[in-house]
């Protein structure tokens, strides 16, 4: 066979792979099992009407106003996380064909935008490549500041997985906040959130809390109650929960430092002529802690 024939076969093979990446088979008709008590979050205001999309391991509601997700929901169990931890992290972003063109994000919207494609439901939560690939649909993605996406937000995702491993199961809803000053990216004008949040309900401890971060490269993150989130965003993430649970902040794990955040901190310390890992600095800190009786 000629070299040209082999080259043609190779190009056809690459084209088929590209097609699989773009037109990945995903989704299912119902997903009430992913919501606490089978009830989806309720949302007031202009973003309260959207399309709920069911996937294997998460559900998401997309808004025609923002051209992206408003919230995503997961039911995380320890057994699935064990498989997810053994699953190689890989995937390809693609527009969600279940949403009509002009009402969804496209790959071109992120090109040269300076924003990361930030997952609401992270691929690291999902067991197996098929479920992981579903998380790369742009219906699950918002413009996220690189410093948040690769830093504190990655740490929050790791902290929630750690809590799920410890407790055995969690209901998690992740969402976005928008300020009055609306900014967007790309020709489809995908709206940029001013903040992001991740709400957790632990059915074993019967407690709940929410991580909230500003969508900036130097994010200010805090932990609030479900009731505070409702007052900020008009979203009731777990409608069936008692008000007493919504008003109480369950103790949450500290935000774990991501490798990216650690490298940035180290580089900043070096640039300033100071390194927390320096042997002499560690000794000074040890003496200071001893003096304070800690």
Automatic annotation (TrEMBL):
Residue span, ENPP1-3/EXOG-like endonuclease/phosphodiesterase domain: 55-244
Residues the record lists as binding Mg(2+): 149
EC code: 3.1.30.-
Record domain DNA/RNA non-specific endonuclease/pyrophosphatase/phosphodiesterase: where: 54-244
Calcium among keywords: no
Cofactor: Mg(2+)
Catalytic residues, chain numbering: 119
Coiled coil: none
Key words of the record: Endonuclease, Hydrolase, Magnesium, Metal-binding, Nuclease
PANTHER family: ENDONUCLEASE G, MITOCHONDRIAL, ENDONUCLEASE RELATED
Family indicated by similarity: Belongs to the DNA/RNA non-specific endonuclease family.
Protein name from the UniProt record: Endonuclease
Lineage, opening ranks: Bacteria, Pseudomonadati, Pseudomonadota, Alphaproteobacteria, Acetobacterales
